[in-house]
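To: structure desk
From: M.T.
Subject: fold request, one chain
Message: Could you run this one when you get a chance? Sequence is below, nothing fancy, just the single chain.
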Amino acid sequence: MLRVELESLKENDFDLDLVGFSDKELDEILADPEDDEKANATPPLPENAVSRPGDLWLCGDGRRQHRVLCADATNAEAVVRLLVERKPKLMVSERWPDAKKAAKPRGWRRGK
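Reply: Done. Structure tokens follow.
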């Protein structure tokens, strides 16, 4: 309700500095509640893929550079190409054809 009233004042060229809120508070009150939803929405898939098998993406620079390879993680040559001579702190891969057969968490048991 406050947002609606403040918007009405703003549309009528009322000086919002006189209402007692800081600029930051006014920005928060007047923010469109759908903005968060829009920011978190997943964009539609492009008609043509941006990355193709074999593409190596270099993100960042120097010691903090991340390498992302679009390839088969079970292929030793692809892994060597990705890592060069680095030892990763974290390596994330998914065996695409077997994704549905992913390892079960420790302690997982089929229901009775």
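Reply (cont.): Residues 16 and 22 are 9 Å apart (CA to CA). Let me know if you need anything else for the meeting.
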